[in-house]
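Field reference: sequence -> structure
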Amino acid sequence: MIRKSRGIKVLMEVLTRKFRGTIVCDGWKPYAKFTKNIQRCWAHLLRESKDLALKIPEAIPIHRALKCIYERLIDALKDDPPPEVRKVLWYMARAMLKRLIEGKYENGNIRMLMSKISNGFEYWFTFIIHPDVEPTNNRAERAIREHVVQRKIIGTLRNDRGTSIHERIMTVLATWSLLGLDSVQMLRLKLSS
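Structure field:
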């Protein structure tokens, strides 16, 4: 769906009140108003902490600590441990992140990052308990990247009709791709029937 907003109204329109899944997201506020089933994106967090570390020496150990937490978890989860092991990992990860958040930081940008992490604290480790949830929203962002570029190039998306047609075509193509179907072959089949 192509919308001018990422607000709660769009979430309600697209996902509806019946949505029971988990949203993997960058932390945009409307998501937490829509559902408590959230996984905050570690790729966004690590990118932000790395950017700070490149500019502010005080941020270097913070970035390293966040990266260490993430990499240890990914390594520990790669063999799909049982729920009781996942629960222990979840408690340990939360304790490590809490210690990091509670540190005393001089720089205002670092304090802002810690505030951001703290505000989303309940949503950083959903992927540990739920094996079907990814720790980043990279897959979703890769899936829409091509469509975002096309939308910027194609002038017909400046009106509602062109946008609607584009949404439908891209949804069908993306669905076929996710199902492992050849889009060209499926398109030929649908056009000939």
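Note: The chain is about 65% helix and 5% strand.
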